[in-house]
Structures are given as C-alpha cells and as structure tokens.
C-alpha cells in the first residue's frame, strides 16, 4: 500500500480527500491547524490504522523532513492560505505559506527522492476570462495576492521538474463546494447566514461567474492524477457548472426557504475577477469528468449545513466572528 503525505488535510478539500481514500492509502496528514484547519473535519477517521496526524507547519523544514522519513511515496500539497478576501487584508501570510511553504516541501521531496509530488493549484492562476475557456498552455495572469501566491507555487513545482527532475504534477481545480467548507466562502457563508435569517453580502451586482465543482469530483480527479498525471504537467479540473453569484444565492434561498429580502448588496471586492472558466479536454483524455449533477449535489451540500449546525456554529461564534467584525465592523 502506498503511503501519502497529505498537507492541509484538516481543511475543506484535504479532509474530504482523506476520508474518501483512507482505505486505499496510508496517509500522514501534516497540518498547522490555522483558523481553517479543524480536527472535527476528520473526527470520524481518528484512530484509523491507515491514518496519522502530525501538527506542524509546511514552512518548518525539520517537521517536514520528519514526515518524509516515515517512508512517504507521494506528497499532495493542499496546505495553503485560501481566502481571497483575507489575502487582500493580510497578503504576507499567503506569501509565507503558499509560496515559501511549497518551496520547503519541494526541497524535502527532492532530498528524499519522493516518487510523485502533486501541487494543488487553482483555476485562479489564469486570472479572469470574459468569454471562452482557459487551457493549461494559456498565460497565467493572477490578479490578487491569493492567486499570485498560488501561481508562485504552481510555477515553482513545475521548475522542480524542469531543473531537478522531480516528478511534479500541478492540479488546477475550479471553485469547490461540499461539506466541511469554512463558512467564510460564498456557499457555506450564505447558507449558514440564511439559516439564521442574517443578511447575504453580495459583492457588487452578483454577476460574477464561477465554475462550481463538487468536492468529491475534485478528489477523484486528484487521486487519478496521482498515477496518471505526467511529470511537469498541469491539469485543469473544471466543474462544467458556470453560475453567477446571484444564481448561487437564489438556490440557497430556495433550499433554506428564505426570501430575497435578506440579500444585501455590499461594496465590491477590490480587483474582483469577473469569470473563471476551464477547458477540461486534457484531463478528460485521462478518463476523468465530473460525475455529480450540480443541482442535486448543491442541494445536498446546502442540506448538509442545515443538518450539521453543531459543526459550523462553534466556528462562526469563534475565529470567524473576529474576522467578520474586522471586515464589516459589525
Ligand atoms: P482550507 O482553507 O479549507 O484548508 C487549508 C488547510 O491548510 C487548513 O487545514 C490549514 O490548517 C492548513 N494550513 C494552512 N497553512 C498551513 C501551513 N503553513 N502548514 C500546514 N498546514 C497549513 O482550503 P481548501 O479549500 O481545502 O483548499 C485546499 C487547497 O486547494 C488549497 O491549496 C487551495 O488553494 C486549493 N484550491 C481550493 C479551491 C476551493 O474552492 N476551495 C479551489 C481550487 C484550489
Ligand atoms: P469565494 O467563495 O470567496 O471564492 P473565490 O473568490 O476564490 O472564487 O467567492 C466566490 C464568489 O462569491 C466571488 O465572486 C466572490 C463572491 N462573494 C460574495 O459576493 N460575497 C461574499 O460574502 C463572499 C465570501 C464571496
């Protein structure tokens, strides 16, 4: 059985990935437990014989090397600061973890002769696109500190293949949705606010478009790329479900049974990317395509937040409250 070092496994996508594949791989989860890292996300697999949790920072060379010494075959680097709005408030944290932390991991992977290194990048590295779809060969044009930091790591991973021959694969998923997403992001924020009858702060006019990918589909793509991804190559993982923020908001209102009076138009995000959209041709050729129906998976996701208040209420009354107050002054 292969042994994986998964970083950032207490976050949204990492925890979904570990739960999905814990029977197939031995997994060491290295996570710093920032505000976004939540042990409750993996409470159900605590004590599983294939699972080990290490609390630590990917920027810490010593702890990273201690993890590599556990006989790791492949690394999947999910660990990152991930929220665009926070990157506008505290860009330095993003440069540190997303760029420098990825460098520390790549160096250790080189030193320990790791077989595969998957760098989880993002569709945001391309910047916005008004019409058409981005291909992997298109120019990268990140437009905020989050996407710029992720681009740094994306290109660094590619350079470690080109320069040192490390087997790196770069994964560029579109916006994920599903259970266990920190309620600062659009879907869990609006769903949990709607449940409480609180306002839904739409940036600008709500016409921005994201391509929504169910987290399980993303995890399946990542797992497939672990064996089928070619060295040094990047792969788009698009959801093929483009929706405006207003369409997402209306779906949340419908499922939670609230009306449009709770929508609140607020000042637009600075440098707000208008639209993200990916061409999936390259990954389709490897045999992957998203298999979850958007309306069904989206409704299931909204209902998960409705049925799991015990998961998000402690978050929203803790660190999140401080962040929201700093952002909106309320
Ligand atoms: P998340 O914010 O929910 O979780 C991030 C995790 O990384 C947390 O558990 C946190 O504790 C951990 N972490 C942060 N800094 C760390 C450090 N220095 N050392 C160790 N651990 C650290 O993020 P997510 O939404 O699960 O995203 C996972 C990855 O996927 C990220 O690299 C992100 O850029 C990428 N991505 C996310 C999306 C999305 O829609 N969520 C889309 C495309 C790409
Ligand atoms: P988000 O979930 O932060 O993901 P990203 O910015 O990485 O795509 O935001 C998704 C979209 O929703 C984006 O266009 C910004 C918008 N948005 C709002 O309108 N209001 C909000 O409170 C949030 C968090 C996001």
Q: What does this molecule look like?
A:
By secondary structure, the protein is an alpha/beta fold. It has a domain at 3-181 and 212-242 and 275-293: NAD(P)-binding Rossmann-like Domain (Rossmann fold). It has helices at 12-21, 61-68, 84-89, 91-111, 145-164, 186-195, 215-228, 245-256, 281-284, 294-307, 309-316, 319-328; strands spanning 3-7, 26-31, 51-55, 74-77, 116-120, 168-173, 176-177, 200-203, 209-211, 213-214, 234-237, 242-244, 263-266. The protein has a 7-stranded parallel β-sheet, sandwiched between helices. A two-stranded parallel ribbon has the order 7-10. It has a two-stranded parallel ribbon with strand order 8-13. Strand 5, helix 5 (145-164) and strand 6 form a beta-alpha-beta unit. Helix 1 crosses helix 7 and helix 4 runs parallel beside helix 5. The protein is globular, with a radius of gyration of 19 Å. The model has no long low-confidence stretch (mean pLDDT 97). Bound molecules: nicotinamide-adenine-dinucleotide and thymidine-5'-diphosphate. Nicotinamide-adenine-dinucleotide is lined by residues 7-8, 10-14, 31-34, 36-37, 57-59, 78-82, 97, 101, 120, 122, 150, 173, 175-176, 182.
